[in-house]
């Protein structure tokens, strides 16, 4: 997986976070569809963290091979 693909996935995850924030009812965040939106936000944040870890590990691997 190359760097461009990883960046595209991070951008898609950010777009999903933005969409899910619009679905959250901030008066009752744990009721109905707001719960699903919060789960989507957390899942997108996990995807971003995983992609950043992956990109960092690729940089470390590249430096070790030199």
Notable features of this structure?
66 residues, mainly alpha
Question: Segments where pLDDT lies below 50 for 5+ residues?
Answer: none
The amount of helix comes to over 70%
Helix and strand sequence: HH
* Class computed from helices, strands and strand pairing: mainly alpha
The amount of beta strand, in percent, is under 5%
Strand elements, count? 0
| End-to-end separation | 20 Å
Count up the helices: 2
**Rg over C-alpha atoms, rounded to the nearest angstrom:** 16 Å
The biggest sheet amounts to: none
Arithmetic mean pLDDT: 93
Overall 3D shape: elongated
Descriptive report:
The protein starts with a helix and ends with a helix. With 66 residues, it is mainly α. The mean pLDDT is 93. It is built from 2 helices and no strands. The radius of gyration is 16 Å and the shape is elongated. 82% of the residues lie in helices and 0% in strands.
